UniProtKB/TrEMBL annotation:
Keywords: Antioxidant, Multifunctional enzyme, Oxidoreductase, Peroxidase, Redox-active center. The active site is at C59. It comes from Columba livia (Rock dove). It catalyses: 1,2-dihexadecanoyl-sn-glycero-3-phosphocholine + H2O = 1-hexadecanoyl-sn-glycero-3-phosphocholine + hexadecanoate + H(+); 1-hexadecanoyl-sn-glycero-3-phosphocholine + hexadecanoyl-CoA = 1,2-dihexadecanoyl-sn-glycero-3-phosphocholine + CoA; a 1-acyl-sn-glycero-3-phosphocholine + an acyl-CoA = a 1,2-diacyl-sn-glycero-3-phosphocholine + CoA; a 1,2-diacyl-sn-glycero-3-phosphocholine + H2O = a 1-acyl-sn-glycero-3-phosphocholine + a fatty acid + H(+). GO terms for molecular function: 1-acylglycerophosphocholine O-acyltransferase activity; peroxiredoxin activity; phospholipase A2 activity. This is Peroxiredoxin-6.
Length: 237
């Protein structure tokens, strides 16, 4: 049922749907997912994140945190969708546990849909399986993969954690902030950057252009090499 993850009215998941074309047996928890896609003219980002298995401890903490942070992703115009190799029924039942873990009503609904890739078709196609983590039948589980798509429908970032290490969703939001800033401004974000910190002027931008583009000033750090490549500017609006 490929239509479950296609989003004809939206843009940002089209890259994903292109990748999964031909997949036969993917289902999703939210039947109204299609109607919640942005209109074609809207700029939207997308995040697809997989977890190894429903009803497991680390996954429960991760999806609980993702649910709590859903308003932050929405603010950034990032549509969320999760994936694992469990059934829709398991996803719905596990959603109650996740909501209870979050201290909320144990309802069968999360702020994002979960793809039920029970036959691992999508996981295989997207390289999400971790051969070292297996279920009781010796079948590989999905790793903790994150794919972020831009409004141009291209993959902007992928990260992969093993099953035994939970992700940091604050870091994923920070990455979204960096991806969105650097998509629109000629800057790059340095190590440990947080929104509001100074950023680096893109190395390809000539000094004269940088001065015009960043009226708050460009500050160059002197280095033993004499090369002027460490150019900072306050985060542009
Ligand atoms: C977990 O979510 O706790 C988990 C899942 C698979 C392997 C190890 C841990």
């Amino acid at each position: 049922m490929i239509s479950a993850v296609t989003c004809p009215a939206g843009q940002h998941l089209r890259a994903l749907t292109h990748m999964v074309s031909g997949v036969q047996s993917v289902h999703v928890t939210s039947p109204n997912f299609l109607t919640r896609c942005p209109a074609p003219h809207q700029e939207g980002w997308g995040i697809l994140f997989s977890h190894p298995r429903d009803f497991t401890p680390v996954c429960t903490t991760e999806l609980g945190r993702a649910a709590k942070l859903a308003p932050e992703f929405r603010k950034r115009n990032v549509k969320m969708i999760a994936l694992s190799i469990d059934s829709v029924q398991d996803h719905l039942s596990w959603s109650k546990d996740i909501n209870a873990y979050n201290g909320e009503q144990p309802k069968e609904e999360l702020p994002f849909p979960i793809i039920a890739d029970a036959n691992r078709e999508l996981a295989v196609k997207l390289g999400m399986l971790d051969p070292d983590e297996q279920d009781k039948d010796g079948m590989p589980l999905t790793a903790r993969v994150v794919f972020i798509f831009g409004p141009d429908k291209k993959l902007k970032l992928s990260i992969l954690y093993p099953a035994t290490t939970g992700r940091n969703f604050d870091e994923i939001l920070r990455v979204v902030d960096s991806l969105q800033l650097t998509a629109y401004k000629k800057v790059a974000t340095p190590v440990d950057w947080k929104p509001g910190d100074s950023v680096m002027v893109a190395p390809t931008l000539p000094d004269e252009e940088a001065k015009k583009l960043f009226p708050k000033g460009v500050f160059t750090k002197d280095l033993p090499s004499g090369k002027k490549y460490l150019r900072y500017t306050p985060q542009p609006e």
